[in-house]
Amino acid sequence: MSRTFNDSLPSVAIHPVPKHSMPAAINSLKPAAGRSASAMREEAVTTASVGMGQIAILSPEGVGTAVLGSCVGLTLYDPNLRFAAMAHIVLPSSDNRTGGVGKFADTAVEAMVTKLRSFGIDPAKLTAKLTGGASMFETKGPFQIGKQNIDAVLERLAACRIRLLSEHVGGTQGRRVTFQCRTGQLLVEVIGSTPIVI
After folding, report:
1. Coil, strand, or helix at residue 167?
2. Cα–Cα distance between 136 and 184 in angstroms, integer?
3. b/e per residue, 156-177, with b = 16+ CB within 10 A?
4. Which of 64, 74, 68, 52 is nearest to 152 (CA)?
5. Which of 31, 55, 112, 162 could form an S-S bond across to 122 if both were Cys, CB 3.0 to 4.6 Å?
6. What are phi and psi for residue 5, nearest 5 degrees?
7. Low-confidence ranges of the chain (pLDDT < 70)
8. CATH value at residue 118
9. Per the domain annotation, does 22 fall within a domain?
10. Is residue 183 part of a domain?
11. Which of 36, 38, 27 is nearest to 126 (CA)?
């Protein structure tokens, strides 16, 4: 499905996961050793409202929310252990800019993987869901930060060889997103539209 970033309706796509294993590049990243499941649950959060530039690690019972405009929300999830990382990414590139690693697409994805590895998560098991990246002011010129954010995140996911399961991106309206680790479902709410689960 092609993305149309200036349309009032967002692009929604579901991407099937192939049965074969993830490529060797990411399989070579080994999970951290010596951390018990109980220790991981104590350090991960069960509820998080993920603000701009933030990354949250959610426990298997965790629920994370974010309100997105041109920013993008990225969730990385291990469906077996049911841990997740959720990021609220503001800008595509960290070049000549200040801010934490969660603020930028070119640093957030790797930071999320690193954080999950410290909780004993194997990066080869991760899947991704992507939301946001709206064109809030219906800009038709070259400076469309929402589209740039989406493209930058997709580029980093490809570089890390993380499979994108689903996306709800573009359009001209903001979104409220809620991810539940127990089910792996991401609820997307847009004003004036029926909520959708991806």
Report:
1. strand
2. 28
3. bbeebbbebbbbbbbbbbbbbb
4. 74
5. 31
6. -80, -15
7. 1-42, 138-143
8. 3.30.1330.200
9. no
10. yes
11. 27
Distance, C-alpha 125 to centroid of its chain: 15
- d(Cα 152, Cα 146) in Å, to the nearest integer? 10
Catalytic residues: 71
- Partners of 185 in beta bridges: 180
Identify the residue whose tokens are 């899947």: 127
Q: What torsion, rounded to 10 degrees, do the Cα atoms 45, 49, 55, 60 define?
A: 30
Are 102 and 51 spatial neighbours (Cβ–Cβ below 8 Å)?
A: no
pTM: 0.79
Q: Give the C-alpha separation, 27 to 34, whole Å.
A: 19
- Going by their DSSP bridges, the two strands 127-132 and 196-197 should be labelled as unpaired
End-to-end CA distance of the chain: 15
Helix (H) or strand (E) holding 164: strand 163-169
What lies within 8 Å, CB to CB, of 83 at 6+ separation is 40, 44, 57, 58, 59, 60, 62, 77, 116, 119, 121, 181
Of all helices (H) and strands (E), which one includes residue 2?
none
Query: 45 with 58: CB under 8 angstroms?
Result: yes
Distance CA 67, CA 42 (A): 26
At 59, list the tokens: 């426990």
Supply the range of the domain harboring residue 168. Answer: 11-16+50-197
